[in-house]
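Q: For a teaching session next week I want to show students how multiple molecules come together into a single three-dimensional assembly. I've collected the sequence lines for a complex. Could you give me the predicted structure tokens for the whole thing so I can convert them for display?
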Amino acid sequence: MAKLFVFSLCLLLIINCSLGSRQQFQQQNECQFNQLQSREPDNQIQSEAGLTESWNPNDQQFQCAGVAMVRRTIQPNGLHLPSFLNSPQLIYIVQGRGVLGVAFPGCPETFEDSQDRQFQHQQQFQPFQPSRRHGGQGQQQQQSEENQDRHQKVRHIREGDIIALPAGVAYWSYNNGNQDLVAISLLDFSNEQNQLDQQPRRFYLAGNPQDEFSQQQGQRYQQGRQQQQQGRQQQQQGQGGQQERGQQGRRGQQQQGGNGKNLFAGFDTQMLAQALNVDEEIVNRLQGRNDDRNEIVQVQGQLDFVSPFSQGEQEGRRQMGGGGRANGLEETFCSMRLKENIRDPSNADFYSPQAGRVSVVNSGTLPILSALRLSAEHGVLYNNAIYSPYWNLNANELVYVIRGNARVQVVNENGDAILDDQVNEGQVFLIPQNHAVITQAGNQGFEYISFRTNDLALINTMAGRTAVLRAIPEDVLRNAFQIDRQQVRDLKNNRQETRVLSASSSSSRRPWSIMA
Amino acid sequence: MAKLFVFSLCLLLIINCSLGSRQQFQQQNECQFNQLQSREPDNQIQSEAGLTESWNPNDQQFQCAGVAMVRRTIQPNGLHLPSFLNSPQLIYIVQGRGVLGVAFPGCPETFEDSQDRQFQHQQQFQPFQPSRRHGGQGQQQQQSEENQDRHQKVRHIREGDIIALPAGVAYWSYNNGNQDLVAISLLDFSNEQNQLDQQPRRFYLAGNPQDEFSQQQGQRYQQGRQQQQQGRQQQQQGQGGQQERGQQGRRGQQQQGGNGKNLFAGFDTQMLAQALNVDEEIVNRLQGRNDDRNEIVQVQGQLDFVSPFSQGEQEGRRQMGGGGRANGLEETFCSMRLKENIRDPSNADFYSPQAGRVSVVNSGTLPILSALRLSAEHGVLYNNAIYSPYWNLNANELVYVIRGNARVQVVNENGDAILDDQVNEGQVFLIPQNHAVITQAGNQGFEYISFRTNDLALINTMAGRTAVLRAIPEDVLRNAFQIDRQQVRDLKNNRQETRVLSASSSSSRRPWSIMA
Amino acid sequence: MAKLFVFSLCLLLIINCSLGSRQQFQQQNECQFNQLQSREPDNQIQSEAGLTESWNPNDQQFQCAGVAMVRRTIQPNGLHLPSFLNSPQLIYIVQGRGVLGVAFPGCPETFEDSQDRQFQHQQQFQPFQPSRRHGGQGQQQQQSEENQDRHQKVRHIREGDIIALPAGVAYWSYNNGNQDLVAISLLDFSNEQNQLDQQPRRFYLAGNPQDEFSQQQGQRYQQGRQQQQQGRQQQQQGQGGQQERGQQGRRGQQQQGGNGKNLFAGFDTQMLAQALNVDEEIVNRLQGRNDDRNEIVQVQGQLDFVSPFSQGEQEGRRQMGGGGRANGLEETFCSMRLKENIRDPSNADFYSPQAGRVSVVNSGTLPILSALRLSAEHGVLYNNAIYSPYWNLNANELVYVIRGNARVQVVNENGDAILDDQVNEGQVFLIPQNHAVITQAGNQGFEYISFRTNDLALINTMAGRTAVLRAIPEDVLRNAFQIDRQQVRDLKNNRQETRVLSASSSSSRRPWSIMA
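A: Of course. Below is the structure for the complete assembly, covering every listed component.
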């Protein structure tokens, strides 16, 4: 038992150490801005069954933070092809539900199908079926191995999940719900897991997808918009419309009719056939020749795989994991927990019935984040509520607006407001390290997800019960601000809330005026 | 008990991990110098009650090491306004004594006043009073909470202290002594705690201070010198002279009459008033409008705050802490030890009655340094004593001359002396990693403080009992240097001291000539 | 006992922490290549008793990975002068055997000679003698200390050893065998142990050596070739030929007749004589005046030093260390294990009787690598065998071809083969992080050593029993590649080997056709 513990710990450490070891090729002097902006994505790629939108990673804000951001919309029954990145990634599920498959190198295929697939084959286009049924048929073990499918663990994802993926780890995702599956991702390419240069790079294992960080956004954007409309109309694989899409945005159009843009595509067909010990015909398909579906493809029928399909069980496991069992024994390299629902109100870390709630997922909550050196915060501010002014001690922060809007001000070391704007749904803005920020929700309230480039990010608030001013003696404040003792006490005591502050139209000076 | 231990350890780890996680935006090719120089500060800012001098951070030496240096002089009863940096900082107290307040985010206000402040108010301008008296009046607990002051721990600092501060943590300091409080600081902006670009940045929480790293030093320097003279004459708040100062060096003079240069200044006054739930009048003071006192202000009367004022107790605690009790139980995030007296002769790590002494403070001595990845060394060389030639294995080193002077030679990989100069009191010079250095004190001796960019910096000496030559077999040295066996033995054995070598005018070959 | 353990652990941690703390001055945008190349060294320096060849560190491939590579040939009885680097280093012994001396700062001289050296002196030129004989004469302790030699541990090295050296640690090596000692080194100057800029720098402690990373390779290379021929003919110290060499390639020829290019050379002679307490005559030799032997010198007679000369014992120790005793108790800072034989077939990690074998040395095998953040892999592919296509998740990889040749293809994120070439003995090529690579041995087989810039580097194979495709459900692959179920099964199951795949000329589809 003790041995097992040590072994598991060892495996756990491997991913911590091996995936978290160095940081390279960093950019310079990119934080000298006089002005920040809240931005919408400026590039998009239409796929057969979805849409990929990205923010220009060469924008000064993203260069300063060393990150890139991508929003991906997968239509029902759409499959995002297996790929990996040169950076760790945090994904927030904005809407919908789906499944996520992650292929850790060298880990066993723990999801095993013991059912007669020949039987299934006849009903290939049947809807997705929970394999609890499979479980009940475990006695049919006498089949040959070739008739079974085995694969690594598959994870169910849903709105409000934060998903953490290390650099270089291949994953795929599939929308098995009824509405679009929308995800917003932060790619931290200045992370030490990236030993290439300061460019986000996605490596596909299948298909012939476009580069989602391509700089040719200009005219393509408008076309993309139109295409999206078309795409939604032609949800079934309409050859004509897609041919058109395929031709428009393709970088290196000379290659058409040639190989695709995935990792198999660059290998010599014969050598690869020999390595895989398969026909060259299969290799041609691997290499994505003439595949114009782009990175999100329409599944024929519905995707069938082995899975204990039960959202309830998933949740239960999480509860237990959080209750003190995350001891390294259950979380090895191969079964490591990769996600956490950050939107569940019952997990809120800060809550005010008048003002809203805030939840944080960091390496204390989700241990893999210590290897990724990233964390996330989700918040809901009620109408006109204020998020206490604060600064990040040890992280840059990128905020994506999920719903509603807010007025945001960011202040630099010269006391200048370098961002003073209304931020709206679907926009992203940067709060650089050490800069002060204040946020006031609009009339419809404000919901956001923010990504921080530190797994144990710290903030210091400038108003409220835990504010920096309360840590400082009265006499220091009195002399610093040239105010009298009563004014100091107002400053220290008039707000008894912590992070989310209720809107109070009156600037009353008495603390009890706002106390619950 | 065990639980408490784990909890404390956890808190301790938080600051280690969260504040020590990444390193970004680093400069390039900046260590290609043919010549190093020992430098005095080339920029200065006069404040109401003190002087800030900085070395140009764009100087090639500082760029190579990725650091900046600042010397600050706080006059008696002067208060350095609360601020924080985008980098970790090591401060050495060159002269004087004072108090330091550090505001850790989310930590409780553990210094509580239970005395009737109304009573105190009448005698507001009484001299600083040790609150041991307060302690004796603890029975007066019946007062309302509004009449008490609470704040976070306040630390007493004195000549010879090394103080370690993480990036982003706000602090203030106050000179409660009778002479100027002088401090020299190293700011390590290439540290992974800084995720902004390679510029030192200071963020103030009060006042309207000038940028101490501004590049407009040229003509201002001379003016500053004159101002300093003026400043000393006008130690009491002379309106005229300060107005003049305020107008001269201010970057962005258009803003005069507008807001100050602190973090509150950039926020919308109304929104901030609402967040703090105070009058806009108070917010105006927070925003530093028309405050021309700069960053070190004169305290009206003397500063009064809760403190167990007893230098003796402080020392006692340190002794105990060093004696094996630094077990993580007493050192949580909030009560973490931030200072260590490096000048106390009784703490010397290397000592020769003939030559001098050397003390080191690293993460073994002061655990927070493991998060800051910095360490310090203090040394006193008697007249003409030699610091054994050595190289730093894993750190750059910046040396500040406290008293006296020395001849210093720094040698690069081509065998060229890139520094060969006399260094004098108040100057700073760089010893780059792996470069060899030899130092010989002048006739008045030599006292220095050196900062190294590694929390467990290692050096290898080239002379003395622990020298690299002693580690190598005779025959290797004989062939490497083409000398005979007796010469090798002289080389290995003629110096029995370790780091500080006594001056011996004769080059006697016999070891006993220098042995004690 | 427990105390001893804690102390040793502490020492162990020191090297981990102190030598592994920061990373600085990194280059930018250097991984944007359309083409990689397999390269031979493009610079060489002829020494008295050997040859130093280096790859241009400014080549884009090396800049991308932030590394440099050097191959050094030491002739029998040649001594590579003591030196250290500004980066950690992994050395692979390609051929021959020798001894390695490493001088850790502050560590005791644990190899002690108790023999009468006067007696030895008479037979000074006797061949290298194992000092087991010395051990038998331990009773002669009555001699004066001056007649004994003491030094730090000396390590025996031989073909197939991987040697790990931290930045700044001085070492020397000596060929005590009968054939040339050939070593290939990786210098990771983008490692956090290097706080200087992005240039490899070697600092010598003796002699007057040329800069092995000098950029003046052009015409010197051909001259070097000729010189090598000459050098081999003039193995005994031929004054004429060496004078010529000394004059040709010397950077800064003005210095000739002046000091050498070692660290002692730049110091003032008198000051250094005083520090060492020796004659200036000795100092002149230390400073390498008029030494034209370059960095590898011919030993007069044979090198004599204290050593328990027994390859067998060394091996035995290793076996025990690997068997569970690496507990920090035996491996302190001073006695840390620095090498591991990676070529020993009995240590292979992957083996196929038909295809070849692969061994890995990482921080699990050799703990010091966790401080260096490097690892190595050695492989032997039989003729026409294939190394499974794969990508590195978290490391760049540099491969040196030891013997034979292979066809190699490296594919980038656009599906383009940026390397598609035959690689030959003595060449180096880069496999950038996340890029896919396939290797097929030529008719004579293929032996290589590869260095990875991560101490726990992970790869994901694209063919074989542990391939990424086996981790993914059938239906996902079927839709991703647009193939039928039987083709998916062929893809997943037709190769049952893992990393090294046997050559199979037929592209048979049945798994049993290749199973053993």
